[in-house]
Amino acid sequence: MKLELNGIDVDCIIGERPDERTRTQRLRVDVVLTIDDRAAETDELSDTVDYAALTEKVRAALVAAKCRMIERAAKVVCDLCLTEAKVSSAKVRVTKFGAIAHLESASAVFESAR
Predict the structure, then answer these.
(1) Sign of the CA dihedral with 109 first, then 69, 66, and 18 last
(2) SS3 79
């Protein structure tokens, strides 16, 4: 079963340029988790991933990481998702908006499994 968390907004330091190291920028994080389908049968939170809690962990991890590259940010989130006992694989997209003129956004996707 797939569990998707779409549009996690994070304001954090992200970027390589000196001006980017002193101000926050907005990232959007999308996560696709592969989990057991037990919760579909039991309808119990204890049988799935608490996505409210995971969302806050993702936001805190990116604020603390102060990544230079969106590729690294995607890996940080993916690694975090794989610490959840009920997650067997994760695919993470991190999108950065307005980094340069004439480019709406840039995204990095990282995928991993246990």
Answers:
(1) negative
(2) helix
